[in-house]
Amino acid sequence: MTDQSVTKTKRQRRPDDRPAEILAAALSVFAKKGFSQARMEDIAKRAGLSKGALYLYFPDKVTLLKALVTQATGGQISMASAMAQAETAVSPLIMHFATTLAARAQDTELPFILKLVIAESQAHPEIGKFYLENVVLQAIPMMEKLIARGIATGEFRAVNPAHAVKSLMGPFLLSALWRSVFEPLGAEQLDVRALITQHVDIFLKGLRP
Amino acid sequence: MTDQSVTKTKRQRRPDDRPAEILAAALSVFAKKGFSQARMEDIAKRAGLSKGALYLYFPDKVTLLKALVTQATGGQISMASAMAQAETAVSPLIMHFATTLAARAQDTELPFILKLVIAESQAHPEIGKFYLENVVLQAIPMMEKLIARGIATGEFRAVNPAHAVKSLMGPFLLSALWRSVFEPLGAEQLDVRALITQHVDIFLKGLRP
Amino acid sequence: MTDQSVTKTKRQRRPDDRPAEILAAALSVFAKKGFSQARMEDIAKRAGLSKGALYLYFPDKVTLLKALVTQATGGQISMASAMAQAETAVSPLIMHFATTLAARAQDTELPFILKLVIAESQAHPEIGKFYLENVVLQAIPMMEKLIARGIATGEFRAVNPAHAVKSLMGPFLLSALWRSVFEPLGAEQLDVRALITQHVDIFLKGLRP
Amino acid sequence: MTDQSVTKTKRQRRPDDRPAEILAAALSVFAKKGFSQARMEDIAKRAGLSKGALYLYFPDKVTLLKALVTQATGGQISMASAMAQAETAVSPLIMHFATTLAARAQDTELPFILKLVIAESQAHPEIGKFYLENVVLQAIPMMEKLIARGIATGEFRAVNPAHAVKSLMGPFLLSALWRSVFEPLGAEQLDVRALITQHVDIFLKGLRP
DNA sequence: CATGAATGAGGTTTCATTCAT
DNA sequence: AATGAATGAAACCTCATTCAT
User: Fold this and answer.
1) A75 and A174, same domain (yes or no)
2) Are D198 and D133 contacting, i.e. CB atoms less than 8 angstroms apart?
3) Tell me, what CATH number does B112's domain have?
4) The Cα angle at residue A32 between residues A29 and A35, in degrees rounded to 5
5) How far apart are CA D145 and CA D151, in angstroms?
6) Distance D106 CA to E10 C1' (A)
7) Which positions in chain D touch C121 (Cβ < 8 Å)?
8) What digits encode the pLDDT tens for the residues D47-77?
9) Quick one: DSSP state of residue B176?
10) Which of A9, B123, D125, D168 is most exposed, with minimal Cβ within 10 Å?
11) How far is C126 from chain D (nearest CA, A)?
């Protein structure tokens, strides 16, 4: 108790990439506790910082969440736009896109981000809107055009492309939430890649003329 | 002290179905604010009760949420078991099941319950577990058997039934979250019935031998 | 330590005049500590309440201060307007007004309110403005008219009435701040009544034609 | 490691008068925000220093305030003592003294210092006491003697000198607070010189035998 | 059964102060 | 001497829950 040799304050100075470290800590705490239940002090501790230091990088809790969503989501958008270019057959494109996304759903924390967005979109609509506009409303029209092109070229039979996109994407959502919601509760792990591979196969066969 | 016969009128507000009224109030407040942001007083007010009276019916906030999920979810289970019986062709069964569920996703508050479960399952695992065990793990094996039977009878080609179920169910999840998460943010409304009808069509064609 | 007979929570219910009790408590704490240094919990304790109960009556700390100023200040205004009526000689009116105000400066907490207003008017301009508009800018023009009338009737010699008012009022301010600022520091007590009586005497003689 | 002769230029910013620069910065920030609301960082920034450097000159915030009051107040005292000497008629002395002080109230930041002292004397009694002892209790007895001498020489009629001093000084206080409290709130500017000139005129006439 | 005033634990945020560089 | 990142105490305010009436 009176041991004074212990450095009671380990004042660290690592301007390395504090924001990124904090975001990583925030993600893991948010994922474990949910946004409301997460305490800023826990995030700080996990980032190896004091409570106050957090506020040097992010002005408040909500901004932290926004930054997290923004960061984790950045990649998606670019992927989407890259996809729209090609002029080859549609089916392989869809399969490639699906495989890439499946890998992300399987290996990254994206599913937890998605769960956060779902959970907090009521209390913090800016976050929900951000996701809606930057992810959902980027990806969906892109896929829609792809499907429409498939129909136009005779690769697919005539269906409503807007609805078809949701047929295609639904299982991704299911996989993501399975991972982030049900697996932590003890549900068996999902083999997302296998699931999606078969799903795309069914989907593409189902669209055959 | 005062004339008690007068007071009587006040109490006549059908004290019968108080719990149900409270649950209805809770659902609408939870749906609007999310669980954490919902205040017990708001629920009480909407149920036409005082804060204190709430506690005569539900011991605490979490129990209220549990009861809500239990109640809203009860129907699903029975539907599921009823389905398992029939011995007819599988495709019409699936279409019927899908149509029924689409109607619920479109017309009831079920999507909001689902969103609540997703949002709160970390902070209150009992709720997540309850849903997992009573809804998800009831419905999925049932559908799985159905698909397996279709394969056995030659109605479907050979696929992994466990994965196929998720191909089938994913768009329901997507529809539910679209309604509960994105529509409140201004996204265009989804015609769930049309979407699901086409989805099942694609899905069943995709499973043809 | 394990004595359970002690009522640990003395939940009181005295809807008597809680707001007034709270304001009294607030005044005494603000007067002792100043606004910023005053802790809501101290005010609560002094009012015989818990921290939270305070917020049932006043939504926040600033509102509490505003209410205090408003209440303590209410009387002044009516006094001012009553004064403007009479048509008699001006000197006795001034003497009467001065005597009344001296009594207040001597016997009430008004000086402490004034000190609070002065101290907080930067941080909370609404409070300063309220005081300026409802007290200062009510009293001063009224006195100005009185003096102007005295000049018109030949009771006083020709002076600038706007400045003369400040000659008259200055010592009140000095008395108030002496009581609220210097007496608590150990300065000798001021006999405000005697001071003001002599002051008005000098002032009126100084205005003789 | 790097060329140090280059660095030298940076340091040449007259390190001589840092304390004075800091005090000037502190005054302007305190005047704008009040003591509690003033942030050390703002003072540092305005003084062209870093937060940390402030602490090389002043050990803490309160000391800074004390130093400010001490500095701004220094002049007063010497003026007071100089005044006590002369042996001429009292009235011209008073008029001269009043004019000098009016100029200060009009043109310097003294009114803001006074307001600070008033606002903080509860929370930091040393500051109030310092002002009381070094300013108030220096000036008042001096003026008192002056008035007593006027009475003794027959220049003034017999009044209570202690009270008369407050008749004389009150309007200064009023002017100072008008400038520091009410003008920032939008009140019309006060012509302190004219006000005081007339005030002294009234006061002296009011004291005529 | 019902009320709503009262409680108090708990979490976010601020900012004076410290100290490694 | 100087910097500014880091610390952590402190205080406001919220709201689930209790209980006297």
Assistant:
1) yes
2) no
3) 1.10.357.10
4) 65
5) 10
6) 51
7) 181, 184-185
8) 999 999 999 999 999 999 999 999 988 766 6
9) H
10) A9
11) 9
